[in-house]
């Protein structure tokens, strides 16, 4: 997906309280579990991914992205709160310098050490990611919390590729990775709300689908995330950690749950 040409211009340590004009649908948020409204109309999520369409993994100076060929409907997300069909273009993570924080969303104010985002765009209505990113119903992002525990076997192939993209704007070919292996066993228990990108351009174009069930990764696997750098080879080294945005005001939005 085309995010490669834009994300790299982002300010690496962007954390600013950047105010978005009329921003009343900003992300991330705290999910107050008892205030979520069960919606029986929410359908099961259907995620269909083809590992063969995995193309590259790269360090964009903010996180690392695994990008997929999104020129066909090989990697689709539909159902759940979505009316249309969405195409996976990339996934990435947010994490902390310690295991005590790092996620962007919180659950009853609880922080997780990291959070995975699988980014999809509405291919029923738009032809390119960068078109959809500006539209209210343009994107669907699945959020999965990471907890430190047992080693995640499927993640290891990705962890092994990270030393090759240590510096900002480094990129390597990365094939045959199934993003489905990063989803929790149960993807039918989730919270959903309308929000925004959590990094510039912060556009309010995202249907968020936050999984209730987390996945586990080992301490050592997460330590490799922290070995990445925000900086390029010529700059003074800055560890890529704490690349999360702080929670934003709910502004009267309702968070719906697919479970009681
Ligand atoms: N962290 S998150 O999952 O919320 C998340 C997900 C995707 C993001 O893409 C930014 C972006 C914008 N554009 C763009 C391209 C062309 C025109 C306009 C914008 N490309 N990439 C940012 C944050
Ligand atoms: Zn993200």
N-to-C SSE string, H for helix and E for strand? HEEEEEEEEEHEHEEEEHE
Binned strand content: 25-35%
Can you list the ligands bound to this structure? ligand A6N, zinc ion
Q: What overall geometry do the principal axes of the alpha carbons give? A: globular
**How many β-strand stretches?**
15
Mean pLDDT: 93
* CA-CA gap between termini: 36 Å
Determine the number of helices (DSSP H or I, runs of at least 4 residues): 4
Measured as a percent range, the helix fraction is: under 10%
Q: Which oligomeric form is depicted?
A: single chain
The chain-level structural class is mainly beta
- How would you characterize the largest beta sheet? 13 strands, mixed
Rg result: 17 Å
Low-confidence stretches: 3-13
